[in-house]
């Protein structure tokens, strides 16, 4: 069972409050960002890896010609399958499942799966949000929220910070642990999404945590 110490609880709370603060700042600047989007369009698609942290708070709608229509997937965790992984105000969260919400639809890109694998030999993939065209990016470290970064398509320069793998869990055939391709010890985690802290709720922030067998670290990726 996933256990948090008092210091872990305080740490998670600070992450969640930081994400909520970022969302508030995003909303306040949303109209200004729309006005500037045309003049910034060229610049947005040429950010370097070191600039990703400046970009991931923006949710510019994906251009219709950016990628051909592809199969989309729902991503959810065992802690509460009634919630789905989504993008909201520049943050990766869990929210009540709504199949009509494009921000809950993810395209699983696996074009590099045969070439890039983790240390256990499992193939890598990217998860790109249908609504925003952004890919889930590794957190800056353990116990931090995952980020979002623009995805330039299968023909673009490969960014290793966007690559994930799905590992098998002993005794659990339905769910996998989603982890960084280059550090499989850090798993995708629904922060505080356990009964001791009220379980998964709307706006549960998703980040990285060391494996502790919690249901909030067990994920399913299923087609819509």
From TrEMBL:
InterPro entries: Ricin_B-like_lectin_EULS3-like, Ricin_B-like_lectins
Span of the signal peptide: none
Compositional bias ranges of the Basic residues kind: 41-60
Residue spans crossing the bilayer: none
Name the UniProt record assigns to this protein: Uncharacterized protein
Region (Disordered): 40-68
Record Gene3D superfamilies: 2.80.10.50
């Amino acid at each position: 069972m996933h256990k948090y110490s008092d210091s872990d609880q305080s740490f998670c709370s600070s992450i969640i409050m930081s994400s909520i603060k970022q969302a508030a700042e995003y909303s306040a600047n949303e109209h200004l960002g729309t006005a500037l989007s045309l003049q910034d369009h060229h610049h947005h698609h040429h950010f370097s890896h070191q600039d990703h942290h400046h970009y991931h708070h923006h949710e510019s709608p994906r251009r219709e010609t950016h990628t051909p229509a592809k199969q989309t997937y729902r991503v959810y965790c065992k802690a509460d399958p009634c919630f789905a992984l989504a993008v909201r105000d520049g943050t990766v969260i869990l929210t009540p499942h709504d199949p009509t919400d494009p921000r809950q639809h993810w395209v699983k890109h696996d074009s590099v799966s045969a070439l890039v694998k983790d240390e256990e030999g499992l193939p890598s993939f990217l998860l790109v949000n249908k609504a925003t065209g952004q890919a889930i990016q590794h957190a800056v470290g353990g116990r931090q929220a995952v980020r979002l970064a623009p995805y330039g398509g299968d023909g673009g320069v490969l960014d290793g910070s966007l690559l994930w793998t799905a590992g098998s869990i002993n005794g659990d055939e339905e769910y996998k642990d989603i982890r960084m391709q280059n550090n499989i010890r850090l798993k995708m985690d629904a922060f505080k999404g356990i009964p001791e802290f009220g379980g998964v709720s709307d706006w549960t922030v998703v980040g990285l945590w060391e494996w502790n067998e919690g249901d909030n670290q067990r994920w399913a990726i299923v087609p819509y």
